[in-house]
Design brief:
Elements: E1 2-5, E2 8-11, E3 16-22, H1 34-50, E4 54-58, H2 71-88, E5 93-96, H3 100-109, E6 113-116, H4 125-130, E7 135-139, H5 157-174, E8 182-185, H6 194-202, H7 205-208, E9 215-216, H8 222-228, H9 236-248, E10 253-256, H10 259-272
Parallel strand pairs: 3-4, 3-10, 4-5, 5-6, 6-7, 7-8, 9-10
Antiparallel strand pairs: 1-2
Helix pairs in contact: 1-2, 2-3, 9-10
The structure holds ligand 8Y7.
């Protein structure tokens, strides 16, 4: 199982790790300046040393209740980082965005995967990916980041998520994105209650049984806090457990904060698979 992302062919025959690189400003910086870029690049280089397979660069938080970021500000945050990383590292760079203009600029700067929590549903997003060689992760979300946790509701969360992802994959294929460039993602925490998230993880094999590789992002998410009682800074063990469970159920790419621990845990999964 190979994912075509730009010039890279990502071998998904064993579970791989996508490391999260947030480029959101601190109180000293508006993003894009030397300090900001340098901190992000230094962190990314350490992730590569640790064995990360993909680096996911994001400039806008999609957490529940997060305030949206303007286009220019998002570009200013992520593009200098992607340009610098493209020159320095030899692993695929992913751009976490739903904005077609950011997708195009990021791909031009060297990104080879588009990680879109809106599954390319914004106007022009499908074309932005179709007109490139980049891969895409199509994620399910109910509602929008501003309101998605207000009252999530499903008749059957697993089949509704699966049907949505299948329909998006078919639509993207018809628009010219080959299936060997696609990942599917149930979107843990995006318009889902604790029970919805647990059911999706329990029945993840129904998604991994589809013909496309599945990405899972459960790292440090609130469902893990609800299960363990730990707050966000203390969810390492729960996050690694969730990554191992996901990989055992067939997930091929794990989006995580804690790269070293997850890489090590997944070696054990690979050994028995
Ligand atoms: C996911 C994601 C986030 C996820 C994919 C967080 C950007 C929230 N979660 N992308 N992004 N899947 N594909 O807690 O689950 O990391 S942001």
């Amino acid at each position: 199982m190979i994912l075509n992302c730009g010039k890279y062919k990502l071998d998904l025959s064993t579970p791989r790790v996508m490391g999260i690189l947030n480029v959101t400003p601190d109180s000293f910086s508006d993003g894009g300046d030397y300090t900001q870029v340098d901190v992000a690049v230094t962190h990314a280089l350490s992730l590569v040393e640790t064995g990360v397979d993909v680096i996911d660069v994001g400039g806008e938080s999609t957490r529940p209740n997060a305030t949206p970021v303007g286009l220019q500000e998002e570009l200013d945050r992520v593009i200098p980082v992607i340009e610098s990383l493209t020159a320095k590292i030899d692993v695929p760079i992913s751009i976490d965005t739903y904005k077609p203009a950011v997708m195009r600029a990021a791909i031009a700067a060297g990104a080879s995967l588009v990680n879109d929590v809106k599954a390319l549903q914004e106007e022009g997003a499908v074309a932005a990916v179709a007109n490139s060689q980049a891969a895409v992760c199509l994620m399910h979300m109910q509602g929008t980041p501003e309101t998605m946790q207000d009252a999530p509701h499903y008749q059957d969360v697993v089949s509704e998520v699966a049907d949505f992802l299948k329909a998006r994959a078919d639509h993207c294929q018809q628009a010219g994105i080959a299936r060997n460039r696609m990942l599917l993602d149930p979107g843990f925490g995006f318009g889902k209650t604790r029970e919805h998230n647990i059911t999706l993880l329990q029945q993840l094999d129904q998604l991994t049984a589809l013909d496309l590789p599945v990405l899972v992002g459960l790292s440090r998410k609130s469902v893990l806090g609800k299960v363990t009682g730990s707050d966000v800074g203390a969810r390492l063990h729960a996050s690694v457990s969730a990554a191992v469970i996901s990989a055992m159920k067939g997930a091929k790419l794990l989006r995580v904060h804690d790269v070293a621990a997850t890489v090590e845990a997944l070696k054990v999964v690979s050994a028995i698979q």
